[in-house]
Design brief:
- Strands 1-9-8-7-4-2-3 form a seven-stranded mixed sheet, sandwiched between helices. It has a five-stranded mixed sheet with strand order 10-11-14-13-12.
- The radius of gyration is 22 Å and the shape is globular.
- It has two domains: 281 residues, Type I PLP-dependent aspartate aminotransferase-like (Major domain) (Aspartate Aminotransferase, domain 2, 3-Layer(aba) Sandwich), CATH 3.40.640; 135 residues, Alpha-Beta Complex (Aspartate Aminotransferase, domain 1), CATH 3.90.1150.
- By secondary structure, the chain is α/β, with parallel strands linked by helices.
- Helix 3 runs parallel beside helix 12 and helix 15 packs across helix 17.
- It contains 17 helices and 14 strands.
- It binds pyridoxal-5'-phosphate.
- InterPro entries: Cys/Met-Metab_PyrdxlP-dep_enz (IPR000277), OAc-hSer/O-AcSer_sulfhydrylase (IPR006235), PyrdxlP-dep_Trfase (IPR015424), PyrdxlP-dep_Trfase_major (IPR015421), PyrdxlP-dep_Trfase_small (IPR015422).
- Pfam families: Cys_Met_Meta_PP.
- Its cofactor is pyridoxal 5'-phosphate.
- This is O-acetylhomoserine aminocarboxypropyltransferase.
Length: 429
């Protein structure tokens, strides 16, 4: 069920899954199996040669995991993709078919702290590199792209500050440069915005967050629009030229819009092995069923809490893009008209000390390194998620020492505000 005329909430419940052909099971079964019996030797050979699509081994594909990929692909308007063991695995998998030693990715300086570390440090071990730029400075983005750049990377609603990226403008720059725009849509989810409708080629997710939605799973996804012409230049030989790692198959020529997806499975998952497990996929499928309902409440609560905090004299500022005071307000109205997400930072009067006190005084909020849970969550990025960054990078990433990051849950909003009220009183006493 991936009929494009169906609405978002219908797709969230039905896309990618049919009643189980063997048993009629209505819910997607957890296919807890490593391997799949071949009909005969010829069938096995056809599967290995990609002449026939089917299940071989669960490091590559698994029916529960495929249902999840197809469901989220339907929600994002993608033709295909892969599910991975975490959001960070998905980022490496997204870059893998594009990059080679000496290549770089131009990335927003406002990213999840772990992504900044992955891109600034760890990918250098592959002789890949990242160039961080303020993606609101379009001239700087263009200037950072050179002949070795293979992708432009940003977050729709940047963690932790809640800044909204101008996806349309960035997609145009990427298009002119002949490279794909990769958008991390974790904090927005396809309910708020579908980056491919704004020109993105690839979307990555940490399924750990809103897609699963209840803090039970670590997972990730890479989705492909199927629209990028990998053969337009010689920049993407893994897709446009015979791939030595898959007995000389030319993926783009043989598989057209599914080239990126098949390369990600047949080479990426096969050799990097960062596969999602069927249990995790099942939990995430359960979460996705209620994504629209939850996001509606998340953004409604976030708007109310942000307005309440902004009006409070114990608070210096709130970075929520749904507030008229935000420099990103107009852009949020255009890119995420249904709401500016449910993640933002709050600067508390009293700086670092007051932030630490606030975090420890809250009762309803959980102090955790996570976001996108049904529960309201809080963290002090400077001492935790972003602690690998130096002072300058902290400020650039929107994680200065005087701010806390809040992920607003789906509880009764009056209870969320009451908890913040009593904790602010203690923090600023
Ligand atoms: C959490 C997160 C990630 C990393 O995902 P994991 O599932 O924790 O590996 C990447 N991007 C954003 C925006 C995130 O919030």
């Amino acid at each position: 069920m991936t009929d494009k005329t169906l609405g978002f909430d219908t797709l969230a419940v039905h896309a990618g899954a049919e009643p189980d052909p063997a048993t009629g099971a209505r819910q997607v079964p957890i296919y807890q199996t490593t391997a799949y019996v071949f009909r005969d030797a010829a069938h096995a050979a056809r599967l290995f040669n990609l002449e026939e699509v089917g299940y071989i081994y669960s490091r590559l594909t698994n029916p529960t995991v495929s249902a999840l990929v197809n469901r989220v692909a339907a929600l994002e308007g993608a033709v295909g993709g892969v599910a991975c063991s975490s959001g960070h695995a998905a980022q490496i998998m997204a870059l893998f078919p594009l990059m080679a030693p000496g290549c770089n990715v131009v990335a927003s300086s406002r990213l999840y702290g772990g992504t900044i570390t992955q891109f600034s440090q760890t990918i250098r071990r592959f002789d890949w590199s990242a160039r961080f730029v303020d993606t609101d400075d379009l001239a700087a983005v263009e200037a950072a792209i050179d002949e070795n750049t293979r992708a432009l990377f940003c977050e729709t609603i940047a963690n932790p500050g809640g800044y909204v990226s101008d996806l349309d403008a960035l997609a145009k720059i990427a298009e002119r440069a002949g490279i794909p725009l990769i958008v991390d849509n974790t904090t927005a989810t396809p309910w708020l915005v579908r980056p491919m409708e704004h020109g993105a080629t690839l979307v990555v997710h940490s399924a750990t967050k809103y897609l699963t939605g209840n803090g039970t799973v670590t997972g990730g996804l890479v989705l492909d629009s199927g629209k990028f012409d990998w053969s337009a230049s010689d920049k993407f030989p893994s897709l446009s030229q015979p791939e030595p790692a898959y007995h000389g198959l030319t993926f783009h020529k043989a598989l057209g819009p599914m080239a990126y997806t098949f390369h990600s499975i047949a080479v990426g998952l096969r050799d990097l092995g960062m596969t999602m497990n069927p249990q995790g996929a099942h939990y995430t499928l359960m979460g996705v069923e209620t994504l629209g309902l939850r996001m509606e409440r998340h953004v409604k609560n976030a708007q109310a809490v942000a307005e309440w905090l902004e009006a409070d004299p114990r608070v210096d500022f709130v970075t929520y893009a749904g507030l008229k005071s935000s420099p990103w307000y107009e852009r949020a109205q255009r890119i995420t008209p249904k709401g500016a997400g449910a993640l933002f930072t709050v600067a508390v009067k009293g700086g670092y000390e007051a932030c630490v006190k606030l975090v420890s005084s809250l009762k309803l909020f959980s102090h955790v390194a996570n976001l996108g849970d049904t529960r309201s969550l809080i963290i002090h990025p400077a001492s935790t998620t972003h602690s690998q960054l130096d002072e300058e990078a902290l400020v650039k990433a929107g994680a200065a020492p005087n701010v806390v990051r809040i992920s607003i849950g789906i509880e009764d909003v009056a209870d969320i505000i009451a908890d913040l009220d009593q904790a602010l009183a203690q923090a600023t006493a």
